[in-house]
Structure formats: structure tokens, C-alpha cells
Amino acid sequence: xxxxxxxxxxSKAVSNSDPGxxxxxxxxxxxxxxxxxxxxxxxxGDKLIPGAREAIMGLRAMGKRVVFLSNKxxxxxxxxxxxxxxxxxxxxxxxxINSSLVMAxxxxxxxxxxxxxxxxxxxxxxxxxxxxxxxxxxPTTLGAHVDYVVIAFDRTFTYAKLNxxxxxxxxxxxxxxxxxxxxxxxxxxxxxxxxGMIGAIEGTTGLKVExxxxxxxxxxxxxxxxxxxxxxxxCLVVGDRLETxxxxxxxxxxxxxxxxxxxxxxxxxxxxxxxxxxxxxxxxALPCRRREWKEGFCSRGWESxxxxxxx
Length: 311
Prior knowledge:
Elements: E1 11-12, E2 33-37, E3 43-44, E4 47-48, H1 52-61, E5 65-70, H2 77-86, E6 96-98, H3 99-110, E7 115-119, H4 122-130, E8 134-135, E9 148-151, H5 159-170, E10 174-177, E11 183-186, E12 189-192, H6 194-205, E13 211-212, H7 219-228, E14 235-239, H8 242-251, E15 255-259, H9 266-269, E16 278-280
Parallel strand pairs: 2-5, 2-14, 5-6, 7-8, 7-9, 9-10, 10-13, 14-15, 15-16
Antiparallel strand pairs: 1-16, 3-4, 11-12
Helix pairs in contact: 3-4, 5-6
């Protein structure tokens, strides 16, 4: 850990021509907007990553814009905002972008007034209904034709839901999904995520999901940039997963930073074609203005590189 009087340093990936690898980009403190993943980046379970509050509040104190992204559709944006606020990071719901919101906007734009059967929890159902999507609870009911089966992370997934999805597809419903994460990081480990539901439904129906709107689809970033009011070259995408957060940023041709507090380990980098522009030990390595905090100073855990902070 560097002292407060030390110049902050970080690991910067080596640039090359492969779009999946690191590219030349500005110093990590030079961006105007920061798009932050939540699970594994800002917190794990109900506990903040050490230094996360200081880093985020410090960015705001510097006049930087911050929004939060989550692939998880099991909580509403209001609930995510309330959780961040309770953890000491005051956040309005509009600064949270999750896959439920992106799915709701997609269906409202591309198929206004459509009917959907949802493999998911009530937060997703409420977001879809708010966007004008008619949610059908039982597609096997006479006359209950649906246009889409929307698949999401669902801790209430049952055989009955699997059968409902099968019957909806038999009568012409299309498959779309909020996210395709294999697992979700929680305090003490990981739990199954939406990939389990997608696998079961694809295996049963014989159809493939046509669209996944969440990470790594850059649709998430389009929504985030709209909220920030900034261009893609002005923002840094920060997350803990190579195959979702970092790949999403690469697809959008944006700068990316990988934190090592979630799913990805340092040794995974050498085995992956997807490379971030920066590697940070944690979100605490993001630049922040020194201020008088009730909890203490604003610490910066930059990972040491060469004399100029680069590899």
C-alpha cells in the first residue's frame, strides 16, 4: 500500500491491435464518468468492499459522474439505491442501471404492448409492467398467448415454470434473457445465476435465446451513457468479470478496469483473450480527493507498476 504522500500507481495492460486486449487510453484519473459494477466490485453480499465508499464519494467530490450497473434483476433499482444509501453511498434510483430496466426499455421500444411470460422475480415483473409490457402469469391458460418468454435470475425457479416456458414456446413465443451470468458472487462464495435457467429452458425447448440484453451486451452501456450525459471516450467501465464487464466495455470501444475483489483472479488474465486496460486490486484504487471523512482519510490502494505507474 502506498503512503498518502506517494504518487498513486496502477497496472496498465499492454496495448496491442487485438480488440479484446488492452488499448492505449488515458490515465485512470482522467475520465469524467465512472460506470461501476456492483456485485464483486462495490460490495459482496451486504458488505462494502473495503475503501469503496471513500473511492466513490471521492470521485463525486472531484466532480466526476458515477453510475452503477448490475446484471441482477432480482432487486429493483430503488432497492439497489436504498442498499447503497444504507451502506453510506447516497444514490438515487436513476443512477442504477440493471438488466431489468434495459429489458423493459427494449421490449417497449421494439414490441410495444407485447405479452410476456417471465422466468424471474417480482422486481423484473414490476419493471416490465411499468414499461407497458403485459405479463401473463400462466401461458397454458386458454387464450393466454405470449410473444416472449423473458428469462432471468430466478431463485423461485420450479418445474412448473419450466413447463410454462415450454408451452409458451410451442405456441410461438420467442426467448430473450436479462443476463447470462453463470454465478452470482455473494459473501463467502457464489450462487447459481441466470445461466442455469437459460440452460434448462434451451435444453427443454430446443430453442436458443435470441437476445441477452445484460452484460456483455453494450446496450447496458448505452443506457448508462445516456444517464451520464457523456461520450464513451469520457468514461471508464469498472468491474470484476472479464467475460461480462470487461468484454462489454471492449464491445463498446470503451476503456475498462478490472478489479480483483470478485470472480476474476490475477492468474485468469494470462488465460484469457479478453484483457482490461487497467488492473486494480480493488475499487479503492480509483482516484479520489483527500477529504476529512468521519471514518478517516481517503485511502488509495493503487497497485505498483513501473516508475510511471505503467507496466
